Amino acid sequence: MVPQHSIQLLEGIVEGCRKSKKHSHLLRVHGYLHKHGLEGHVLLGNHLVTVLVEARKLDCARVTFDMLLYRKEYSWTSLITGYVKHGKPHYALCLYECMKTNADIQPIGHTFVALLKACAKVKCLQKGLEIHSDIDKLGLDKKDVFIGSALIDMYSKCGSILRAQEVFDNLKSRNVVCWNTLILAHIESGYCQNALSCFAKMQRDGICPDYVTYICVLKACSCIQAIDEGMKVHSELERQGLFHCNGKVGNALLDMYGKCGLPSLANEVFNRLPSRDVVSWTSIIAAYVDKGDAHRALFYFDQMRSNAVYANAVTYICCIKACGILNGLSKGEALHRDIKRDDNLRSNPVIGNALIDMYMKCGELTKAREVFDELTVKDVAAWSSLITGYTEKGHAVEILDCLKQIEFQGVIADTTLLISMLKACIKLRATERAYSIYAEIERKGLLGTNSLLGNIIVDMYSKFGYILKSQQIFNRLPARDLVSWNVLMAAYTDLGLAEQTANCLEKMRVEGVSPDAISFVCALKAHGIMGAIDKGTELHGEIERQGLLVKDSLVGSSLVDMYARCGALPKALEVFHKLPSRDVVSWTAVMEGYAQLGESENVFHAFNSMLAEHILPDPVTFIVILNVCSHTGLFIKGQTYFEVMSKAFGITPIISHHNCLVDTFVRLGHLDKMPRIFERVPFRPDSVSQRTILSACCKWGGFEHAQNAFKHASL
């Protein structure tokens, strides 16, 4: 029997270890108690359990707990809380089952809060419902705001936001913690607008927001780019003085402006922060990267280092992305070397995916593949990065190899990877594989779950020439957003189905979808094809009102093209001269307009003026030029432009360019030159080539030459 004064002395030593955080001394005390069989002492043992949990010595705490002759409620709660806090939620839930077998032990509020956190961590809704039932039996769910908040959090993390809202609605009293938990629950469930509505109701109910509330609301504004609401919160923070006294609030405000595409305002906030941590620096870097200003982003990264702030994984991901935007290989390689020196960064799969993407954008496909091969876990995001890179660079063999490996290894593709695979198939025109992927999507019922996936399938069938199938898929989409309509309009436009394109614009308006720049570009092309100048003029007025003529150069170029196609060259030139910047598309549209009116000299003059503005021609420009040479009988000039196109501008001739040259020869009766042209063509001539030969045959005779040309055209 150990004297009482010795027990009291040991209790004092244990408490002293707790206060001084001398964990090594605590373990020695634990060893002494174990040696002398004192772990089972009720007061000393229970106290030791709580102190060992605080010291994160969970195994020792459990051994002591199991040795206890009588376990007090606070020992159960302490060990359950410790398991949850230190990443062992399953242990906590198992211990609770043991606790329930002790009829004389009743859990308290803290016990349930810890258990609900455990359910949230393992996302086990069924276990959460069981614990909620236990809480309900004790009548704690409506009275205790902390349990109520824990229930709201648990249900939202387990994917049941409706149950979370129901718990909140049934609470007898609601403090700021309850409101904050509900607001965050809506954000994490993807209902950011609901979160802002909760914030407004909270204020109407007379609950004063705290700094956590404002951080949550700013996060909601970031997600849905609710800049007006975000600015109101900013004003309130300034009024209350919270901006300067809480660094997390400043960082949330900085992040909000960055996510809303306003890096200049983010920069103002950044410059006013009383102190800047890695989150502050990373947020300003991300703001500029997202806006495409990679130079400024990397400037801030260098400044961050000079201020002795160490980058985290998110910082590196942003900077690697900046290097990809700039094709900054040397800087990207330097970042890669830094990452290799840090075990945690080196094993981070998101950083690995960012490196693959960066090397692909810089044209270093071999290095991208090396990074991929070194990944310990090749997840669907890594495969997606690799396939996307190969697709953008047009490496067909590598793409097919990736698709085979994915199939062989049984990789379960998510929507992002499926989209990357379909884009690759479209690029390669790998129809059979594309249809196989589509069949898998249908089998899994994924078509209606992701609008991006549905949109890419609509695009795929149109690119393969099955516009009716595209329309069928489009009609099945559960929610047709702006992108869906634009994809279908672009499909009709590419096939020259102008009337259907114009109808799409009207239908999307009826469904409440407002057109954007891409919609207007498609519609303008359609009206140009149909010669519907009145409709085109109506769109012109709408474009002017929305300021798109200044904001989007492609809209301006399309407007010039529409007027030119409708034969309204003066109007086309009027728009052309008003454009804030003129690109190759707008110049080519003007040339096309002159060509339609037979003003060949003005076509060549416009071409030279374009070059004088340092704007390089594209393949379409040369189709216009060569057509003009053909129709005006400028045989030598046409040959000269054909050679200049490839030698001076590096444009590889396509079949349309060769057809223009053939047309020039046949118009002048040079049928003997046609076989030689087709000998040089690296691909099979099309129906236009054959019609040109037939018309030449009818006009000039020379059936032998025509037959010879057909022979070469069919090889």
From TrEMBL:
PPR repeat spans: 175-209, 277-311, 348-382, 481-515, 583-617
Task: Identify the species of origin.
Answer: Ceratopteris richardii (Triangle waterfern)
> Could you tell me the Gene Ontology terms of the biological process aspect for this record?
RNA modification; system development
Which GO molecular function annotations are given, in alphabetical order?
A: RNA binding
Pfam families given in the database record: PPR, PPR_2
On whether Repeat is a keyword of this UniProt record, the answer is yes
Which of UniProt's keywords are assigned here?
A: Repeat
Could you identify this protein by its name? Answer: Pentatricopeptide repeat-containing protein
- Please tell me whether the keyword Metal-binding is annotated for this protein: no
* Taxonomic superkingdom: Eukaryota
Gene3D superfamilies, sorted:
Tetratricopeptide repeat domain (1.25.40.10)
